[in-house]
Amino acid sequence: MGTLTKASTNASKTEQALKQMHFVEDVGLSFEMVGLPRMAGRIFGWLLLSDPPHQSPGELADVLQASKGSISTMTRLLVQIGLIERISLPGQRRDYFRIKPHAWTELTKQRMAQITAFRQLAERGLELLEGENPQLRDRLIEMRDMHAFLEQELPALIQRWEDR
Where are the domains of the chain? Predict the structure, then answer.
């Protein structure tokens, strides 16, 4: 391979790596927008792209330029919320992390409990405002109705997804 071809290939690889890291950062920002730590999102973003799909804590620390303590804390969080899992490989002494199969379905099922809790809160608020000005109740009525709708419709959507 000629020098020019090698340089072109290296530039292409560098450009691809830069695009991947921008994606990882965007996933981190997306996690942050929903109240999760940016570093958890960065780990998740890298695991979405990585080859092999499993990465050791040390590999994650290296590629994300993060401390091993931060990687440990954030992988523990991601395991707890069900997005990733810890695995071991035959003949290896260290653990690895990968995206948990069906992670999005499980996460959506967990959200059902949150939806129910918000509907119940709205109902309690409506009880507190019983007999008050209907305009005061409108916010709570919308909150209750929206969450009741999601409680009714989301299980069918999840089932349709799983049937695909």
Answer: 3-101, 104-163
Q: Give me the CATH code for the 3-101 domain, please.
A: 1.10.10.10
H or E element at residue 86 = strand 84-88
* Residue 12, number of CB atoms within 10 A of its CB: 10
- What is the per-residue burial (b if ≥16 Cβ within 10 Å, else e) of 74-107? bbebbeeebbbbeeeeeeeeeebbbbbeebeeee
Which contiguous run of DSSP H or E holds residue 95? strand 95-99
Taking each helix axis from N to C terminus, what angle separates 38-49 and 57-64, rounded to the nearest 10 degrees? 110
Do 19 and 45 contact (CB within 8 A), yes or no?
Answer: no
Looking at the structure, give the CATH architecture of the domain made up of residues 104-163: Orthogonal Bundle (1.10)
H helix or E strand, kind and range, residue 81:
none
Residue count of the chain, please give it. Answer: 164
Tally helices (H) and strands (E) across the chain: 6, 2
54: its two tokens? 């499993």
* pLDDT tens for each residue of the chain, 164 residues long: 566 566 667 778 889 999 999 999 999 999 999 899 999 999 999 999 999 999 999 999 999 999 999 999 999 999 999 999 999 999 988 999 999 999 988 888 888 989 999 999 999 999 999 988 888 899 999 999 999 999 999 999 989 998 98
